[in-house]
Amino acid sequence: MTELIGADKVSVEGHDSLKKEKSGAKVIIDVGIPAEVKDADAAAVASAILEKSDLIAIYGSNEFAANAIITAK
Hints:
two-stranded parallel sheet; 2 strands
């Protein structure tokens, strides 16, 4: 995504291991990774992202993540 849009226009936020924050970025990718592989933890992470007012899209990379998103709705 950053290669398509431009590294100076994308800020990656959320999980510490993937952070590359840029002030004034046009696109913000908020990465949510639960602390443990538990349904409740994943649903809490998904819920926090879904509650953001400027959300455009959400992506779950596998069945576990997709189920967490559905549960959090």
